[in-house]
Amino acid sequence: MVVITIFVKGKIFGINIGFSIMKERKEEVFGYTNRCDDGKFIVFLDYDDMPYEWVIKEIKSIQKDFNLGDFYMFKSSESSFHAVCFTKVQLGTLRTILMNSSCDENYHRVPYSIGKRLLTLRLTEKEGKKPKFNGMLLRDSPRLESYEHKKLIHKLFRCMTDDAIISNSDFEHPTKIIIANYKV
């Protein structure tokens, strides 16, 4: 089945009109979200069809520019990557980080257009492969980090030491992680 969505774009005979054609979304997937219970967010970046070397250079620049801590890198499919930083930031800062990155535009535009303001990273398979831990970009930062998000990632990927999980963690504001179920 094909879904046709009408939206305003351009003028034809003096009338603003446009359209797009989208496939029906059938595949059900699960992921985890970046919202923390204190109203802050951890940083999620989703890069599609980008050389890993470019992603690494950009992440290092973002770490420095926004005083962010370690980033955990995951290969989500061939030449696609997830980058996760547990440093807690305000929504405005997160949006600025996203706009200053070259991550997938739909990834950071859609959550704000549908109103939930949550970014989600997939945990289920894409192109027959689940995300795999691909390394870390280390950087010290005095800012607080989401302890619960760290525990979840460690449990799923076994990529942190106990000291890394505890370091800079915000124990005053525990977070319930929202697991998202959606169709793509």
What is the averaged pLDDT score? Answer: 85
C-alpha end-to-end distance: 14 Å
Note the quaternary state here: single chain
The shape, in one word, is globular
Report the order of strands and helices: EEEEEEHEEHHEEHHE
CA-based gyration radius: 18 Å
Number of distinct beta strands? 11
Measured as a percent range, the helix fraction is 25-40%
* Number of structurally distinct domains: 1
Into which percentage range does the β-strand content fall? Answer: 25-35%
Order of strands side by side in the largest beta sheet? 6-8-7-10
Report the total helices: 5
Stretches with pLDDT under 50, minimum 5 residues: 1-8
> Which structural class matches the secondary elements?
alpha+beta
Tell me about the biggest sheet? 4 strands, antiparallel
Description of the structure:
This protein has 184 residues and is an alpha+beta fold. It has one domain (28-183). Helix content is 27%, strand content 32%. The protein is built from five helices and eleven strands; from the N terminus they run ββββββαββααββααβ. Strand 7 (71-77) and strand 8 form a beta hairpin. The longest helix has 15 residues, at 52-66. The two termini are 14 Å apart.
